[in-house]
Design a protein that fits this description.
Elements: H1 18-31, H2 33-56, E1 61-63, E2 66-68, E3 82-84, E4 86-112, E5 121-124, E6 131-137, E7 146-152, E8 157-161, E9 165-168, E10 180-187, E11 190-196, E12 202-208, E13 216-224, E14 228-234, E15 237-244, E16 246-260, E17 267-271, E18 274-275, E19 282-283, E20 287-291, E21 294-299, E22 303-305, H3 319-340, H4 343-349, H5 353-389, H6 399-427, H7 430-449, H8 455-464, H9 497-521
Antiparallel strand pairs: 1-2, 3-22, 4-5, 4-10, 4-13, 4-16, 4-17, 6-7, 6-13, 7-8, 8-9, 10-11, 11-12, 14-15, 16-21, 18-19, 20-21
C-alpha cells in the first residue's frame, strides 16, 4: 500500500492566519480611495481648524488707556504657573532658625455684587482660602521657593510649600478665645511646621524640603486672600464664575524669632502688588499696623498654583471635526461589506469570524492612530507658536505632559474608531451607526463642556459615558488649595487622563465583544 502525504503549504503563516487577515484588511482599507481620503481629511481638519483658532486668537492687556502685550505667567520652582502676591513682614535668616507666633484673629472684607448701581457693596468676611501665618522664603522676588504654615479661612491649619504642595493640619478657625500657635523651624534644608492650641503642647503638621531654600532666606509673618469666587447659575442652566476683591487682616502676637541676622529689624514688602495707571499708587495694597508686640497684617492675593494662560489642548479645536470624519471611515469600513454583499466572501475566506472583526479593529486603529498622531504633533507646536506671536498668554507645559496630550489624543482617535467600527458591525447600517457613535461620544462631551448643564451633571457625564476619553487631553493639574472652578466647562475633567481613556477603551471592548457575538450567531 502506498502512503499519501497530505499537502502542506511551504508558506509561513501567522498565528492561525491572523497576519494574513491583517494584510487583507489593510489592502481593503488603502485601496478604497474614499476611505483614505476620509483619513486625510480628518488630519487636515485637525491641523486646519487648530491653526485657524490660533490665528484668530489675539490678546493684549491695558495699562490705563495704553494697550500693552500681556505678561507671561509667573513660573514657580516646579515649572508650573503660580500666583505669588501677599504682604510679608520679615527678617533675614542665614542658617538654622525658627519663628513662632500666636494668631488670635482673622477678619476681612469681601466685594459682593452691587445692590445699588454705582455703590460698592463691601461686606465683612473671609474667603475659604484666606491665609495668614509664618513663612520662610528664599527672597522677596515673586516665584521663589518657600515654606509656610498658616491658618486659613475655612480649611483649618495647612502647611504649603513651593506653591503646589499642601499638607493639612487640624481643622477649625481662630478667635481671641481659641487662638492658634504656629511654628516653623529650619534645620539645614529641612523645614518643620508645628501647631499648638496653647503654646505648650505641639503637634507636627509636616516636615518638608523645598527645592530652592538654601543659604540666606527671609523669615517672617504674612497674610494673603484670593478673590471671592462665586459660581452662579446662568441663563441656560450651567453656571457662571466671578472672582471679586477680598482681603484678610490677621492679628498675630507673641512673636519669637530665633537665628536671625544681627539687628533684628523688620522689613515690609507687598509682594507682587500692582500699580494704578499713574505707576505710583498701589492697587489694593496690603499693610501692617504694629502696636508693641502685636502685628496686624493685611494682605490680598494668593500664594498658589495659577490657572492663567492658554493650556496646550486649546489648539486642538479641530479634533472633534477630525474625530467625526474618522468615525465615518471606521463605520463604513465594515458596513460597506454588508451593503455590497462582500461580507460572505470575507467569511468564506476566514471562517473564524471573531478574528475577522479583530483584524478590522487592529487595522482601523493603526490607521487612525497614525493619521491622528501626525496631525496632532503638527498642530500643537505650530498652534502654540502662533498663539504666542499673537500676544496670548500660554500656560507652561512639561515635556512629558505635552507628549501625553499628543500621543493620548491620537490614542483617543484610534479607540473611538474601534468603537465606531464595532457599532457599525452591530447595526450594519452606516447612517444609524454614525448617529449612534456621535450620540455616545460627542454629544455628552459637548453638553458637559459648554456650560449647558449643572457642573455635577457634567462631571457624571464625563465619568460614565465614552466621552470620558477626552480627559486624556487635560494638561492643567488640579490642586485642592487652588481657588478655581474645577469644572468641565473650565477644562477640568473628573477622571485622571489615563483613567478617562480607559473608560472609552472599556466601551470599545464591550461593543467589539457584542459585535463579535452577533457575527458568530448570524447567518451572514
Amino acid at each position: 500500500m502506498t502512503a499519501v502525504t497530505p499537502y502542506r503549504s511551504g508558506a509561513r503563516t501567522g498565528r492561525d492566519g491572523f497576519a494574513q487577515l491583517l494584510r487583507a484588511e489593510w489592502i481593503k482599507l488603502r485601496t478604497v480611495r474614499g476611505w483614505m481620503l476620509g483619513l486625510a481629511l480628518a488630519a487636515l481638519l485637525i491641523v486646519g481648524l487648530g491653526v485657524l483658532f490660533a490665528t484668530g486668537s489675539r490678546s493684549s492687556c491695558m495699562n490705563g488707556p495704553i494697550e500693552v502685550p500681556c505678561p507671561a505667567p509667573l513660573i514657580g520652582p516646579g515649572g508650573v504657573a503660580v500666583e505669588d502676591r501677599f504682604y510679608f513682614v520679615h527678617q533675614p535668616l542665614d542658617g538654622d532658625g525658627s519663628i513662632t507666633v500666636r494668631v488670635s484673629s482673622m477678619t476681612g472684607q469681601l466685594r459682593k455684587p452691587d445692590v445699588t448701581p454705582g455703590v460698592r457693596n463691601v461686606v465683612s468676611g473671609v474667603t475659604p482660602w484666606a491665609k495668614a501665618g509664618v513663612m520662610i522664603k528664599q527672597s522677596v522676588r515673586q516665584g521663589t521657593s518657600y515654606a509656610a504654615l498658616m491658618v486659613t479661612g475655612s480649611h483649618g491649619v495647612h502647611m504649603q510649600y513651593d506653591f503646589t504642595e499642601d499638607v493639612a493640619g487640624r481643622p477649625g478657625g481662630v478667635s481671641a478665645a481659641s487662638p492658634r500657635w504656629l511654628r516653623l523651624t529650619r534645620t539645614g534644608n529641612t523645614i518643620t511646621g508645628e501647631e499648638s492650641s496653647d503654646g505648650s503642647h505641639w503637634t507636627t503638621v509636616g516636615t518638608v524640603r523645598p527645592a530652592g531654600l538654601a543659604g540666606k532666606v527671609q523669615i517672617g509673618l504674612f497674610a494673603a486672600s484670593p478673590g471671592d469666587l462665586t459660581v452662579s447659575p446662568n441663563v441656560m442652566f450651567g453656571a457662571a464664575t466671578a472672582s471679586r476683591f477680598a482681603e484678610v487682616t490677621a492679628v498675630m502676637d507673641q512673636v519669637g524669632v530665633r537665628g536671625v541676622a544681627a539687628g533684628g529689624a523688620w522689613s515690609r514688602d507687598d509682594i507682587g502688588v500692582t500699580m494704578e495707571p499713574d505707576g505710583v499708587t498701589p492697587h489694593h495694597p496690603g499693610g501692617l499696623t504694629r502696636s508693641g508686640g502685636t502685628f496686624r497684617v493685611t494682605g490680598v492675593g494668593d500664594i498658589a498654583p495659577s490657572a492663567e494662560g492658554m493650556p496646550v489642548e486649546r489648539v486642538l479645536a479641530g479634533v472633534l471635526a477630525g474625530l467625526v470624519a474618522m468615525m465615518v471611515v471606521a463605520v463604513m469600513f465594515v458596513t460597506a461589506e454588508y451593503r455590497r454583499g462582500l461580507i460572505r466572501t470575507t467569511l468564506l475566506a476566514s471562517p473564524r469570524r471573531g478574528r475577522v472583526l479583530a483584524a478590522k479593529a487592529v487595522v482601523i486603529a493603526a490607521a487612525t492612530f497614525a493619521a491622528g498622531l501626525a496631525a496632532v504633533a503638527t498642530t500643537v507646536p505650530v498652534g502654540r507658536s502662533i498663539l504666542a506671536a499673537n500676544g496670548n498668554m500660554l500656560a507652561p507645559v512639561a515635556t512629558l505632559t505635552s507628549l501625553r496630550v499628543i500621543v493620548g489624543t491620537a490614542a483617543l482617535l484610534a479607540v473611538a474608531a474601534v468603537f465606531a467600527l464595532a457599532v457599525g458591525a452591530l447595526f450594519r447600517r452606516s447612517a444609524m451607526a454614525v448617529i449612534a457613535v456621535i450620540v455616545a461620544i460627542l454629544v455628552p462631551y459637548v453638553l458637559a463642556t459648554a456650560s449647558i448643564l449643572p457642573d455635577e451633571v457634567s462631571r457624571w457625564l464625563l465619568r460614565l459615558t465614552p466621552a470620558a476619553g477626552f480627559a486624556i487631553q487635560q494638561s492643567m493639574p488640579t490642586y485642592a488649595h487652588m481657588t478655581a472652578r474645577h469644572a468641565p466647562a473650565e477644562g477640568y475633567f473628573p477622571l485622571p487622563p489615563w483613567v478617562g481613556l480607559a473608560v472609552l477603551c472599556a466601551y470599545a471592548a464591550l461593543a467589539l465583544a457584542l459585535a463579535a457575538y452577533r457575527l458568530r450567531r448570524s447567518d451572514v
